[in-house]
What does this fold into?
Amino acid sequence: MSFAQLALSLIFVAIPLGLALYLKLGLEKDIIIATVRSIIQLLIVGYILTFVFESDSVIFIILMILLMIAAASQNVVKKGSGIPGITLIIIFTLVVVEAVTMGILLGFSIIPAEPEQIIPISGMVVGNCMVLSLLFLNKLKDELNYSEEVIELILSLGGEPKDAVSRSLKSSIRTSMIPTIEAQKTMGLVQLPGMMSGLIIGGADPFEAVMYQLLILFLILTTAAMASVMVGYLSYPKLFNKRLQYIGLTQSEQ
Amino acid sequence: MDILEFKNVSHNDILHNISGTLRESKITTFVGPSGAGKTTCLKMINGLLSADTGEVLFRGKNIFDYEITKLRKNISMAFQSSPMIDGTVYDNLNLPSDIHGETLDRKRAAGLLSLVDLDESFLDRRVRDISGGERSRVSLARTCVHEPEVLLLDEITSSLDYVLVREIERLVKRMQSEMDITVIWVTHDLEQAKRVSHDMWFLRDGELLEQGPAEFIEKSKNPEIQAFVKGEK
Ligand SMILES: Nc1ncnc2c1ncn2[C@@H]1O[C@H](COP(=O)(O)OP(=O)(O)OP(=O)(O)O)[C@@H](O)[C@H]1O
Ligand SMILES: [Mg+2]
It folds into this structure.
């Protein structure tokens, strides 16, 4: 695509802008800000990616991934989970999931060790991990509220913290993974997944695009499972004290 | 012989400097109005809560000097709301065993149910489908699985009808004398307390106002207790 073509695509901004003005929707300002921000942000990312790809230096790739992880953790932590020490847990989870998935992808040469492959795929892995962690923590909060009495019951019978929360943990892990699994079942029926569409538009052979998309789907399944299981099992000990008493989620952090 | 002792126990703003003893192989009731701190005291004995200052002693030793999981197995608690895990009545009776890596024999489970006057057919009923009264009886049966030395009962008859209340009272008294266990029974019903207890603790606003033999409490000169006694009748 040329710059001239891109400039012409601004027509698609002009249409909603015109409608907003004509109908006095009060959205003109937001539309303009959104347009300008997306242009600037994506251009910056484009330049950074070009720079990283051309430099072909491992350090820049790693830096880029760390940046993604930092931004993603920040996003999870600021929502307030009520679990002390959640920041470290999230960072650790993201690092491990990224390391394991990349290790497998590169170790078995499933993808070539090129920044053009590593960075976008890492972005999907880290982003998906972030979404799953948020989903899991939300479910866990509900689940703990609901089963506080059962947790105390199990402790009172001489159970360990893991006995007391295992039902809540498993149920939260299950419910946070279900959307990922369900989405895969209808994949391709309703709409083409974004990445596949991108590849096809970019001129790739549809089958090549399909194979890539499948790889990404499987990868996302792994990240969903790993993220919720890791966050869950690393978090639950923080809900109890040394005397095996249930403290629960702290309120103040929210 | 005293089996349990509270020594200057305070907890948050809920319990204030409670000191008292509980006799072995007796039924002691904790009596007092709602919010008095009865449940909180029970949880202290099981180690679910700990004192900010002071301590709770079991056979002369701070409860946290014992291995807490073993102690809890031996000091069993029936909660006020009879919490249940999802599943069948059997799953719930099996829970105490399951936690300790064992499986409860179905015959034994049926035996426990008959203790609380429930038929064997209840074993496979889902706990969501049983009544409040049945639930509290399952909860009581569950506390007996490990044959504990101390039984902590929190308002276990509040959702039962008159006949069942009396039956459970007889049952607990019989269990207490047959198995020679110590029972601490929380109730806000003074008449019930008089029927079942050897000893009584009277709690109000987080303070232990009076303790002693059941008849003695009723004759207490303490105006707050007198007011409670009168209010009951
Ligand atoms: N987790 C908690 N956090 C804060 N306050 C609590 C907590 N649990 C209990 N309390 C307060 O402590 C006081 C004593 O509670 P407790 O449950 O021990 O009373 P109780 O004598 O068992 O009352 P009831 O007969 O209604 O069950 C109450 O005022 C209650 O609101
Ligand atoms: Mg209570």
In short: Residues 156 and 245 of chain A are 9 Å apart (CA to CA). The mean pLDDT of chain A is 90.
